[in-house]
Amino acid sequence: MAIDICPFPKLDKILLATDGSEAAVFATNVAIEIAKPCKSIVYAISVAEIPGFAEEFEAFDIMFMEKKAKQFLDEVKKMTDKAQIKCETIIHTGPEPHKYIIDEAVKNNVDLIIIGRKGKMLGSVGRKVIDNAPCNVLVTPVGASLNFDKILIATDGSVYSQIAAAEAIGTAKRFNSELLIVSVAKRNENIPYAEESVKMVKEAADREGVKSQTIVAKGEPFEQIVDIANKNNVGLIFMGKYGRKGIEKFFMGSVTEKVIATSARPVLVVRKKVI
Q1: Distance between CA atoms of residues 194 and 161, nearest Å
Q2: Is the dihedral of CA 262, 243, 187, 178 positive or negative?
Q3: How far apart are CA 71 and CA 183, in angstroms?
Q4: pTM of the full predicted structure?
Q5: Do 116 and 229 reside in the same domain of the chain?
Q6: Do 122 and 27 have their domain in common?
């Protein structure tokens, strides 16, 4: 189903990272789907990755890798041109691709980074991009359907999940979506925190006239979040980048990363944009 409303209040610029993989092609389609109603510019970046010991590489090898990166970008440009989306392509050569991606996100003041994921492999580049991004990051698993009929916000009451909740509520209001507000207590003593966390978001949703349902679960947080998303056929999961240590820290390498790695649903990692 085509998206005919811009899901976020400000989405002038999208940065799309591509390596020519199936996951990257899928992410390109998602970027186009979002960019159309938002009238966004897409900045497509590909990095010809050369390890730090590049002196061991022949010039021919470097040229070959740069040629492949250009081909990946040419393919993105064909797709965006066909969809009548403005696209600027960016190519870099060197080690640590995530640094180039982050640098371009900052340089171009982008509002959203989109990366793809195949299977249970986010990859070290994806993890580092999310952990260092100056803006929100949307991770799209291959084959996932991005829709806004039902949105899930995972919360632990921290300031970071409150920022994510505010974005989730705003998106739900635009699409008249049902909002599932989920908090997971790993231990019995954490249940009161979880109950208070969903209550805060519920009150905020009610003030905006957003229909919502609260769910407090007990168990392994990432497993519960993914299971609830699957059972309720959620179209998008919102999560904060960090979270409250008192429940279970939502942090790359912990709950957020595990949700991203195991969810068949797109995940939006929300952080307050760095200006």
Answers
A1: 12
A2: negative
A3: 44
A4: 0.91
A5: no
A6: yes
- Is residue 275 in a domain? no
pLDDT exceeds 90 at position 46 = yes
What are 164-196's pLDDT values in tens digits?
999 999 999 999 999 999 999 999 999 999 999
In the chain, what are the helix, strand and coil shares in percent, each to the nearest 5? Answer: 45, 25, 30
Q: Could you tell me if 17 and 133 lie in one domain? A: yes
Rounded to whole angstroms, the Cα distance separating 218 from 81 reads 48
pLDDT, one tens digit per residue, over 211-252 is 999 999 999 999 999 999 999 999 999 998 754 444 444 433
Helix or strand run (H / E) with residue 23: helix 22-38
Q: Which helix (H) or strand (E) holds 47?
A: strand 41-49
Token representation of residue 22:
């199936």
DSSP 169-233: HHHHHHHT-EEEEEEEESSGGGHHHHHHHHHHHHHHHHHTT--EEEEEEES-HHHHHHHHHHHTT
Residue pair 249/239 in contact by the 8 Å Cβ criterion: no
Q: For residue 161, how far is the Cα from the chain centroid?
A: 14
